[in-house]
Known about the structure:
Elements: H1 2-13, H2 15-33, E1 40-43, E2 50-54, H3 69-79, H4 91-104, H5 114-126, H6 130-137, H7 141-157, H8 160-170, H9 180-188, H10 197-206, H11 221-236, H12 242-249, H13 275-285, H14 295-304, E3 308-311, H15 315-324, E4 336-342, E5 349-354, E6 357-358, E7 383-384, E8 397-398, H16 405-413, E9 422-424, E10 447-449, H17 451-457, H18 460-470, H19 472-481, H20 489-495, E11 512-513, H21 515-526, E12 530-532, E13 537-541, E14 549-551, E15 557-559, E16 565-567, H22 571-581, H23 603-607, E17 612-617, E18 624-629, E19 634-640, H24 655-668, H25 682-685
Parallel strand pairs: 1-3, 6-7
Antiparallel strand pairs: 1-2, 3-13, 4-5, 4-19, 8-11, 9-10, 12-16, 14-15, 17-18, 18-19
Amino acid sequence: xxxxxxxxxxxxxxxxxxxxxxxxxxxxxxxxxxxxxxxxxxxxxxxxxxxxxxxxxxxxxxxxxxxxxxxxxxxxxxxxxxxxxxxxxxxxxxxxxxxxxxxxxxxxxxxxxxxxxxxxxxxxxxxxxxxxxxxxxxxxxxxxxxxxxxxxxxxxxxxxxxxxxxxxxxxxxxxxxxxxxxxxxxxxxxxxxxxxxxxxxxxxxxxxxxxxxxxxxxxxxxxxxxxxxxxxxxxxxxxxxxxxxxxxxxxxxxxxxxxxxxxxxxxxxxxxxxxxxxxxxxxxxxxxxxxxxxxxxxxxxxxxxxxxxxxxxxxxxxxxxxxxxxxxxxxxxxxxxxxxxxxxxxxxxxxxxxxxxxxxxxxxxxxxxxxxxxxxxxxxxxxxxxxxxxxxxxxxxxxxxxxxxxxxxxxxxxxxxxxxxxxxxxxxxxxxxxxxxxxxxxxxxxxxxxxxxxxxxxxxxxxxxxxxxxxxxxxxxxxxxxxxxxxxxxxxxxxxxxxxxxxxxxxxxxxxxxxxxxxxxxxxxxxxxxxxxxxxxxxxxxxxxxxxxxxxxxxxxxxxxxxxxxxxxxxxxxxxxxxxxxxxxxxxxxxxxxxxxxxxxxxxxxxxxxxxxxxxxxxxxxxxxxxxxxxxxxxxxxxxxxxxxxxxxxxxxxxxxxxxxxxxxxxxxxxxxxxxxxxxxxxxxx
Length: 686
């Protein structure tokens, strides 16, 4: 019998050393820095209000000093009452387990110390492949020997307190509660610092078998028996007096369960409309190389990395956007009316709102308005999580004459002046575009137009001629530089180098675009031609409190959440484009004449400060747009049927995006100082 007892201990330094020394040393090095998966938090712009969390394992790392002594003592009593006496492996426990298992011809008793259990959990958490997970958890003698070797090594490098802290942050307690913070929250709606002896003993008892001893089950008998066992052990170790333990054992287990929020659909009802911005954060995150080499790795980082993410929305602007697209009142329409507001000079998204409820539950949605859809296909209203505002895979909506900005800006950047004039008939046949013959929306547009009047009245035949002069491909390329992406097969083909020169209809907005893209593109013009990538966050910090960073192609380390900007056109060209873009809004340009009337002359009166912008409608008014901006904010609003692009909005609703942008700019900027646009130079006026 003595020989039998000695064997498992000898294996740790004998057979195990020969077979696994190198592997164990490598694994031990990993464990020194291994951290368990941790929940990432999305905060409101105040940096304090938690909107939601992202996790696969709900866990928040908690320092031992922030845990009640009750839970520290209870876990030692439950799992390893000789924790403070052994050096990682308990010879008495090993011998006892070996004898018991030999007699039963199976595994009737374990010998894992807290340190050995921590090693197992850390190996599991740091595993990179399914094979490594299996290796860390499989029930074999070799795995146990490796575990013992690593436990002995870890105890030489970490204090008992450090091991206990790591253990309590790694252990699984059931109900997706990983670590003591999650367990205290899920079972008792408390923090680890406030756990009573009864609560601590209940949680400590769960580690052995979370399902068997679940206190949230209808029958608490097994949970109570296990808790009482832990309380008795605590009394034996003098953590509790016998009388205190007896009193505690007579108490019922009083749980106060909490279901932690997870992902964007869990955002509180008061912030429901913010779900669309949350969804954009996820889509944006999945495209950031800073978080991994592919989408899968990046999303894994989000759910396991313990990041602190602060949303970029401005609550005042967001509230204005929600109000002015009827986010709460007009959710029952097949026509989506949405708006995105971006900040010139940073690209930060200040508002995202649409007349929909952000929800995964589409059970009560009616049938799709698309006649070609399966009859069982649900409509996108009133509930949806589809990225209707941009940032996902949806192509967007035809943006109409808002695209006239791109050839005009390209012409100005190429040196053509604002005074460039063309005789603009009702219909114009283009020799450049193979006889294509677009017409204007009204005969009143006929006559000689400049960039000011042509843009203000949205004269199609003026812009076709302007596009002929600079080349349609230059307008397409500029749109791409300002963040537009082509998602349909038709748009991709037309925008290709082989086709772009002949894409005359580009200036009329036949391509799909999203309000996110359009708001950000126009924001670059407001920022004197400096384009900034759309940025949905104010900050991202790692679990250790340092800013999340990435390395540029040039080797420079930069913060992920910092604006990423570049000059796309020269500042004078952008200022000139803004001067012309004041005409559609009823504003007065600094240098030229708007020609007597405009397409959205109510905007200036509504906003009450200098404002530029452009209307846009498509054939038969299937969709309607307005993109407007001040020096401080740029906003793009649309109305269309996302399910059926042939379901015409109609002229009667074409004013809705105009009002949405004008009123949102007015309300969002209320109380802020009025800023003026910088006039263009005389050289570019012509």
